[in-house]
Amino acid sequence: MKAGERAPATYEDLLKVPDHMIGEILDGELEVSPRPGARHAWNATVMTADLLHRFGGPPDSPGAPGGWWILFEPELHLEGDVAVPDLAAWRRERMPAIPDVAFFTLAPDWVCEILSRGRERAVRVKKMPLYARAGVGHAWLADPVAKVLEVLRLEGGRWLLLGAHAGGERVRAEPFDAVELDLGRWWLP
Q1: Domain count, the chain
Q2: 13 lies in a domain?
Q3: Is there a domain that residue 90 lies in?
Q4: What is the CATH number of the domain that holds 99?
Q5: Residue 129's domain spans which residues?
Q6: What is the spatial distance between Cα 45 and Cα 112, in angstroms, rounded to a whole number?
Q7: Is the model's pLDDT at 2 over the cut of 70?
Q8: What SS3 state is found at 80?
Q9: Over 70: is that where the pLDDT of 114 sits?
């Protein structure tokens, strides 16, 4: 290590983050952010409810496709970094049961980051490349202020924007495109 350089953050550094904050280690640096505000929390809550209702059951559930484990703010240990996406999901064929663990080392099949003021740069510049390196196949970026959902798929190690949807659109968004989703429910007025 050169003079003036800081040592990479450790898990012990992460454990010192106060409970009212969210801590992550991205590119070896400790990133600390406040708990989300009301718009962010509403967006995460309603999105989780919509997805769990349709996809959270066993595959081919009555009236819903099912087949996914969908979790709110799971701790992911990927490639030496520690990330906490707002939502993450694993296909049940890749993870037949949710393990009783404090964190996950198996990369999810999908992540959703809800963009908050002051955190967009960390999400786009640090977390999205981490998710790509770890092989997360799909990502959504939700902006509760602009009321926009960006839908991305990983192709050849790069994120491909499949679409951006705004306001109260009804969409079929990969990887949950088996069911139409009403985005208008996700945003506070």
Answers
A1: 1
A2: no
A3: yes
A4: 3.90.1570.10
A5: 36-186
A6: 12
A7: no
A8: coil
A9: yes
